Amino acid sequence: MITVSRRRWFLALAFIGALTAAMMAPSEEVARPPLRAAKGPAGPVTPASQAQRRVPRDDNVPPLADFERRIDEKFVVVDVFEARQMPGPAAAPPPAPLPPKLPFSYMGSIEEAGRVKFVLIEGDKLHIVAKGGQFAGSYRLEEVGSEELVLTYLPLEARQSLSKGVKK
User: What is the pTM of this model?
Assistant: First the structure.
């Protein structure tokens, strides 16, 4: 494994080598092939005749900096490699939590001191409840009907019906 200092030395040597190669490269003037005299009806090719054949240069071309600025004014630059999150379908709101199934069974009613109380069984526990009373830590008896009791599960304020088992 190459350590950081060795890697830096290697990169520095590579940079110096590239710089030296660029400086040693022949210039544009040397890279052109020499002009040869061509035989034919037009006569030999000389630098003067070569200059006459060249297309005249347009001096109205703006400098490179103006060209780049104009490109920026006309076009929007988009980074195609930018990480983007595609919009997905709109998420539906989570469903409202449901109260647990009623763990009670109706056993009957008791009239005591002019008030009617209802007897409910939860497993091996017995609950005697009047209308509006709380029981089992999280339930309240809200309404009493002829065929059912309406209970409220207090943590969710959810109303549930408990059948009395009476049919008319």
Answer: 0.46
Q: How many domains does the chain have?
A: 1
Nearest partner of 135 among 124, 122, 148, 116, judged by Cα: 122
Full domain range(s) for residue 140: 105-163
For residue 120, list its beta bridge partners: 106, 127
Q: Which H or E run includes 24?
A: helix 4-24
45-72, pLDDT tens digit by residue?
A: 566 555 555 555 555 655 544 444 445 5
Q: What is the domain-level CATH number for residue 142?
A: 2.30.30
- How far from each other are the two terminal CA atoms of the chain, in whole angstroms? 90
Residue 40 located in a structural domain: no
Q: What is the pLDDT of residues 68-92, one digit of tens each?
A: 444 556 665 566 676 667 778 888 8
Q: Is residue 38 part of a domain?
A: no
